[in-house]
Write a structure and sequence with these properties.
The chain is α/β, with parallel strands linked by helices. The protein has 2 domains: 211 residues, Enolpyruvate transferase domain (UDP-n-acetylglucosamine1-carboxyvinyl-transferase, Chain); 207 residues, Alpha-beta prism (UDP-n-acetylglucosamine1-carboxyvinyl-transferase, Chain). Helix content is 31%, strand content 26%. The strands form 6 sheets. A 4-stranded mixed β-sheet has the order 22-23-1-24, with helices on one face. A hairpin with a 2-residue loop joins β4 and β5.
């Protein structure tokens, strides 16, 4: 197994190009199952998770090839509808094939994901929604077996909580249902807008993009399509936070500033200088003036609120401030796994339930240590901390990072960081 080694304390200068969004690529790749023909997806990041979903759709009969960041996926011959525990346990988003398989083949058997490091993460909203569309779902031997009658039937579905993948799964199921489906209290994350754009390119009839009520008028046929994956807002946010933590002057290109309203506001409040152009963000934090970093509170919310996927990284930044801040996690019940590791680097953090109080110890407050990655975003908070800390940080289990950050080592190296991989 490999570990990531960081010699910290170097500021970050230069420019870095942001990759396509993991959490958009996964549902869009799943959506190719909906229609025969060759689909083209551009700006697809080459990550452990995108490779996992490609091998999954490959098992179902899809044939794909990659040229640079463009994927060509031929879904003419989809005949298998079962997804094993081995795949789902490595990536929960595997459940995203349920909606497309129900639409295309009328049945799907997918292993039920268990809990994971950040919470229980049930998929009851997905299942309840499918049942409203006329699907019979049985749970046996750890698998959900879902079967529809002749056709899926449009209905009104209310989400108790605006689940991201739940909304995506129901959208993909409903596009070819008979009649109209209305998703109420639907998630509004930009990745859902990206999926809707692809489905519309395929011939779907959808209203309400960007709102919490999405209306889908079922169509009888869909065709293959060409779609661009949106820039990864979480990768963008992680680099912005890293520069704020380590100091420096960096331009992030190929990104979408409009997708990060909460983070950009919080970074400015904390003392970073931010300037925005159409598809780039520049951030400047004078390394000599990092003691001016202010403690700023955050509370994770659904989009456009502060994203839970950037909570851990912001906490790492706040450990270097000269103030105190309160961090509230409202999306997942167990998303403070990074706290114990950050403490090993000198951070002063107290948690109580879903809240954490961070007492900043100033820009020189962290020192490098051996730490353990527990999930994708917790790992990236350790990278942020390692870049700002004095001395050497070693992060084990970096396969977590490889799930969501394309070319992390070379991108950080290009900004002047000393980062490399070593065998454990
Ligand atoms: N929930 C339920 N029942 C459901 C679905 C969700 O109770 O059927 C609960 C969850 O347990 C959680 C909350 O609702 O407490 C929100 O979960 P959601 O369904 O929105 O999360 P998700 O769709 O499983 C996606 C991202 C996550 C991101 C969350 C929140 C993908 C592939 N994953 O997960 O990304 O944290 O939305 O924005 O899109 C990551 O990239 O590191 C990551 C974890």
């Amino acid at each position: 197994m490999e570990k990531l080694v960081i010699e910290g304390g170097r500021s970050l200068y230069g420019s870095v190009a942001i990759s396509g969004a993991k959490n958009a690529a996964l549902p869009l790749i799943a959506a190719t199952l909906l229609a025969p023909g060759t689909h083209v997806l551009r700006n697809v990041p080459d990550l452990r998770d995108t490779r996992t979903i490609l091998s999954l759709i490959g098992e179902l009969g899809a044939v794909w090839s990659r040229e640079g960041s463009t994927l060509f996926i031929d879904c003419s011959d989809i005949s298998y509808c079962e997804v094993s525990y081995d795949l789902v346990k490595t990536m929960r988003a595997s459940v995203l094939v349920l909606g497309p398989l129900l639409s295309r083949l009328g049945r799907a058997k997918v292993s039920l994901p268990g809990g994971c490091a950040i919470g229980e993460r049930p998929i009851n909203f997905h299942i309840n929604g499918f049942e409203k569309l006329g699907v019979t779902c049985n749970l046996e031997h750890g698998y959900v077996e879902a079967i529809r009658g002749d056709k899926l039937k449009g209905n009104t579905i209310y989400f108790d909580f605006p689940s991201v993948t739940g909304t995506e799964n129901l959208l993909m199921a409903a596009v070819r249902a008979e009649g109209t489906t209305i998703l109420k209290n639907a998630a509004r994350e930009p990745e859902i807008g990206n999926l809707i754009d692809m489905l519309v390119n395929m011939g779907a009839d959808i209203e309400g993009r960007g709102s919490d009520q999405i209306t889908i008028h079922g169509v009888s046929r869909l065709r293959s399509s060409e779609t661009d994956i949106i820039p990864d807002r979480i990768e963008t946010g992680t680099y912005l936070i890293a520069v704020a933590a380590a100091g420096g002057d960096t331009k992030l290109t190929n990104c979408e500033p409009k997708h990060l309203p909460a983070l950009l506001g919080k970074l400015s409040e904390a003392g970073a200088e931010i300037s925005i152009e159409q598809s780039s963000i520049s951030i400047r934090m004078d390394p000599e003036k990092r003691d001016g970093l202010t403690g700023v509170d955050i509370k994770t919310m659904v989009y456009p609120g502060y994203p839970t996927d950037l909570q851990a990284q912001f906490m790492a930044l706040m450990t270097l401030s000269s103030g105190i801040c309160l961090i509230k996690e409202t999306i997942f019940e167990n998303r403070f796994m990074h706290v114990g590791e950050l403490r090993r680097m000198g951070a002063r953090i107290q948690t109580e339930g879903h809240s954490a109080v961070v007492t900043g110890c100033g820009p020189a407050g962290l020192s490098g240590a051996r730490v353990m990655a527990t999930d994708l975003r917790a790992s990236s908070s350790l990278v942020v901390a390692g870049l700002a800390a004095s001395g050497r940080t070693e992060i084990s289990r970096i396969y977590h990072l490889e799930r969501g950050y394309e070319n992390l080592v070379s991108k950080l190296g290009g900004l002047g960081a000393r980062v490399w991989k070593e065998n454990e």
